[in-house]
Amino acid sequence: KTGMFTFDPGFLATAACESSITFIDGDLGQLYYRGYPIEQLAEHSDFLESCYLLLNGELPTAEQFAEFNRKIMRHNMLNDQIMSFFKGFRRDAHPMAVMVGVVGALSAFYHDSLDINDAHHREVSAHRLIAKVPNIAAQAYRYNKGLPFSYPKNGLTYSENFLHMMFSTPCEEYKVNKVLAKALDRIFILHADHEQNASTSTVRLAGSSGANPFACIAAGIACLWGPSHGGANEAVLKMLDEIGSVENVPAFMEGVKAKTHKLMGFGHRVYKNFDPRAKIMKETCDEVLNELGLRDDPKFQLAMKLEEIALSDPYFIERKLYPNVDFYSGIVLSAIGIPVSMFTPIFALARTVGWISHWTEMISDPGMKIGRPRQLYTGSVRRDYAQVADRK
Ligand code: SDX
């Protein structure tokens, strides 16, 4: 509409919706949140400010940000009854199963008092989700480890508070390493939104029926869990463990070409030259490993070797397969001390703001209609019922 972007008719035919939140150019490797390049936000912004931008469409003034921060902090505790839901899970339940269940259960606490046609109710729901999902993720980790539940500590930044909730114990306060917290904050920014990806489309489709936002975000978490989507960062670390050493890379690559397995963390439905987030993630990986004296981390060395080989191999070049955001994020999270099982919950934590921004944009549109994708029917033509005796 602003004349900035022109789309070919073929593209328009596939467009699921109109949105003003995030712009991606897959050929140029461009990603903008509300018009701001991801590279600039990763360098100059922080995650909570980027949340404000995605939700409201503009960067906040100092006063607006202070008020937003206060609102988020006001909602970051969990109703004490919510804590009982964690105990219904086996200790070894995957944290994503816990997040789907507990985020969905938030509906039971807010559904009856929530009118999604009221802009204030929508705003409070967005604040509640942005504030509570990190707490739920951290308690899922602690429950899995048999640790007592923890509480947010206001006055810390959003990312510092998440690390505090994850790792502090009653006996010992977690000393936040500012470099690591900043790296985690950047991971949150990079994963915050990404246009109409599978999980965001899930949230939009669920929300188009008028379902409450907590249930819609739980649906998005469920979709994100898959290894082709948000589960890829966990799959990358498992892949690196499976390969083991650089010597095994050629054999592994042969298996990829024979299609017995994929190179996890590579490829993308939209980016066909490079994922701008992967470049920033690789730099962040470098910073974190330098900070921790892990420059020679074998996993990082192996990942860089895999990338080098893949980028020079015609099989990958012909198929336009490049590292995506998930290729290096797992190595950074590992180095920070976050277990592999928490990688996708962290992706879900970051993407919550994107999901709820798209939900808000859609629900705020008075012309919104329920989504109803159609199909190309490939089944049997009309036929009459056959009695059992006549069947073969
Ligand atoms: C995310 O949509 C988003 O925006 C998602 C996301 C977000 O922020 O929300 O960016 C986050 O989900 C990133 C992607 C994370 N997933 C992975 O890293 C898993 C590994 N990658 C793939 O499974 C795959 O690349 C997809 C699912 C991401 C894309 O799959 P497509 O659409 O099938 O890829 P394509 O059409 O470009 O494939 C072209 C060819 C095919 O081979 P041929 O049939 O031509 O012989 O490349 C092959 C594919 O089989 N291929 C791969 C591959 N990805 C595609 N071969 C080996 N390894 C891979 N990773």
TrEMBL record:
Q: Which family does it belong to?
A: Belongs to the citrate synthase family.
- Extract the CDD domains matched here: EcCS_like
Q: What is this protein called?
A: Citrate synthase
Q: Which Gene3D superfamilies does this UniProt record tie to the protein?
A: 2.20.28.60, Citrate Synthase, domain 1, Cytochrome P450-Terp, domain 2
Alphabetical keyword list: Membrane, Transferase, Transmembrane, Transmembrane helix, Tricarboxylic acid cycle
What are the record's GO terms for cellular component?
A: cytoplasm
Which pathway does UniProt place it in?
Carbohydrate metabolism; tricarboxylic acid cycle; isocitrate from oxaloacetate: step 1/2
Q: Which Pfam families match?
A: Citrate_synt
- Which InterPro entries did the record assign? Citrate_synth-like_lrg_a-sub, Citrate_synth-like_sm_a-sub, Citrate_synthase, Citrate_synthase_AS, Citrate_synthase_bac-typ, Citrate_synthase_sf, Citrate_synthase_typ-I
Catalytic residues (positions): 268, 326
Gene Ontology terms, MF aspect: citrate synthase activity
Recorded catalytic activity of this chain's protein: oxaloacetate + acetyl-CoA + H2O = citrate + CoA + H(+)
Tell me if ATP-binding is a UniProt keyword of this record. no
- GO terms, biological process: tricarboxylic acid cycle
Q: Which PANTHER family match?
A: CITRATE SYNTHASE
Ranges annotated as spanning the membrane: 327-350
